[in-house]
Amino acid sequence: MTERIEFNGVPASHGIGIGKAFILEERNSDVNPEKIHEEDIDYNLEKCTRAFSKLKSEFQHLKNESEGEVADIVDAQIETLKDPELKKSILRKIKEERYEAEYAIFSTLNEFIHIMENSDASWLNDRTIDLMTIRDQLIDAAKNRSRDESIEENSVVFATAISPTKMIELSRSHIAGVVMQKGGLTSHAVILSQSLDIPCIISAKWKNKRIKNGEDIIIDGDEGTVVVRPKEKEEVHYARLKREQQKNYKKELEIVEKPSKTKCGAHFLLQANVEFLEELPRIKTHGAEGVGLLRTETILFQKTGFDLEAQLDFYRKVVEASGDKPVTIRLFDAGGDKLLEDAETESNPFLGWRGIRMLLDQNELLTNQLKAIYILSGEYPGRIKLLVPMVSCNSEIEKLKENISSIKEELKSENTNFDDNLPLGVMVEVPSVALMADRLAKLVDFFSIGTNDLTQYTLAVDRGNEKISTLYQPFHPAVWKLIRMTKEGADQYGIPVTVCGEMASKPKAAACLMGLGITNLSMTTSALPKVKSMLCNHSLSEMQKLAEDVSESNSPDEVISLLEGFGS
Amino acid sequence: MVKKTVTVKNEAGLHARPSSALVKTASKYDSDFYISMYGYKVNGKSILGVMTLAAECGAEMELILEGRDEKEALDEISQLFENEFELH
């Protein structure tokens, strides 16, 4: 098995990665239920204790270097390591059942994992991945395999799936890229890989390819290509491509300093989509003029959703990092694939209890978040905007406004300052809202189009479903038509429109959006320079011509070829 | 030995964060601490044990403490339930 192989996955984070294979899972394959001799019991007990304290100090270290939600996740892991029942069971398996330390750890953790997986509480099911991580890390520590030593710089990491904390940890080891067997384009790990500039490919079936640790790998995060054991001329080719990309990237970053104006002088506004504190330093370096979309679900999943101070703390960090620029905070968009812990399993979660639908039912959750945002608006007047997810009809906005009124009354009675004119906007991600934009526009202060969900709901294609992934066509003319309708509806009442979906992060699609008159775009920070460079180098009339042609297209292919032909 | 029946008042139930607060508080005391619920008894100092109870809002559980500081421990722990585990 030394010949070259090549296969594809879904490109998730751009860039070329060249390095040696590092397979995350393969490390624990040699745990066997072998019985040990009596004289080896003490050695195994000691090995186990050593593994626990080693991992505990590693976690402690990681916690000290992290903040916010990452620190909370790590703290929960430390708490698990302190669990007396866990330790008791492992030690009993060694002492009484005479299993070696690794197997005692393996089978004990699996028992807990099994309970969690079979629980009716979905939040508990979600915790299993954390326990699996701890299990594997404990076994590594018992075997005295250091993760820090084994993940060398420029490794291309192959994994089934990667947790957000793991992605942050990997970025600190300066890896060259990530290939995941599973994964959705909107998963936390993928969003992080983009903002940390780690090339990433998902849904890549690498497990049957017999890749071994240390083998030469090239991945292309723009094409979704994985090359194992590449030929020499290929290495040369990709190394050159990578150098070119880096050179272009540096050049692109130069554009950050230039004014946001088209070739003919028309102004535009580029902002950042933010979810994790780790992404904040890039707001400045990549030239974002504020945060156009702050996702807040992370707070909810870290269980701090009900805690006013923890919420405020998170928001303040984001606002401070944005300099004097505006920040649009989106209310919790939970539900769909991002399940709340007490949510019941639904047969159609994407068409179910999510976003504003859930918030209006969960009064305490909604009230708390609104209160936090209004208090914040008093601290930073004129800089905060409020965005509502998953709206599908006017009455949802009317109900929300009632909630807002009572929050304002409450704050007034407490003599707390707030911004009385806090702009209220809705996400346009359901076709009904785009179709009724002309009626909804008089109720709100701005629209923000979420193109990922709008595409999914317009085409009736679950974007997480691999079987129909080819039907997920973000450039379908129907999507463009709805975007145009939204803009026209907004224009009737003079309210601004932003696009904060993936479409905004594709330079040529961004040019087309500009052509439609949408001058506010918000995107993953890594895409900002190339989008800015595209918009700066073309005139508005060129972009308007593109938008007109796209609007008259009959198929996604036609749109794609129009976009590809633009500017070249 | 002291015992007391308490009710979970948190809207989201006794999920990861309150469980962690409960275990942290209990671990400050020497006394043994058990939680009895649905006919199961778990070690109240074990975060995995407490979490796997998956106690929902409204669930009743019996706190059982035994040891030299059992009374103080019971007071502080029942207070946590009373305050819905306000963590800051």
From TrEMBL, chain A:
Its EC number is 2.7.3.9. One of its GO terms (molecular function) is phosphoenolpyruvate-protein phosphotransferase activity. Residues 8-127 form the Phosphotransferase system enzyme I N-terminal domain. Residues 254-536 form the PEP-utilising enzyme C-terminal domain. GO terms for cellular component: cytoplasm. Keywords: Coiled coil, Cytoplasm, Kinase, Magnesium, Metal-binding, Phosphotransferase system, Pyruvate, Sugar transport, Transferase, Transport. PROSITE patterns: PEP_ENZYMES_2. It catalyses: L-histidyl-[protein] + phosphoenolpyruvate = N(pros)-phospho-L-histidyl-[protein] + pyruvate. Phosphoenolpyruvate binds at R295, R330, N452, D453, R463. It is found in: Cytoplasm. The active site is at H188, C500. Residues 151-224 form the PEP-utilising enzyme mobile domain. Its cofactor is Mg(2+). Residues 390-417 form a coiled coil. Mg(2+) binds at E429, D453. GO terms for biological process: phosphoenolpyruvate-dependent sugar phosphotransferase system. Belongs to the PEP-utilizing enzyme family. General (non sugar-specific) component of the phosphoenolpyruvate-dependent sugar phosphotransferase system (sugar PTS). This major carbohydrate active-transport system catalyzes the phosphorylation of incoming sugar substrates concomitantly with their translocation across the cell membrane. Enzyme I transfers the phosphoryl group from phosphoenolpyruvate (PEP) to the phosphoryl carrier protein (HPr). This is Phosphoenolpyruvate-protein phosphotransferase. The gene is ptsP.
TrEMBL record, chain B:
One of its GO terms (biological process) is phosphoenolpyruvate-dependent sugar phosphotransferase system. Pfam families: PTS-HPr. The keyword Cytoplasm applies. InterPro entries: HPr, HPr-like, HPr-like_sf, PTS_HPr_His_P_site. Its main location: cytoplasm. PANTHER family: PHOSPHOCARRIER PROTEIN HPR (PTHR33705), PHOSPHOCARRIER PROTEIN NPR (PTHR33705:SF2). It is found in: Cytoplasm. The keyword Hydrolase does not apply. Gene3D superfamilies: HPr-like (3.30.1340.10). Keywords: Cytoplasm, Phosphotransferase system. Residues 1-88 form the HPr domain. This is HPr family phosphocarrier protein. GO terms for cellular component: cytoplasm. Belongs to the HPr family.
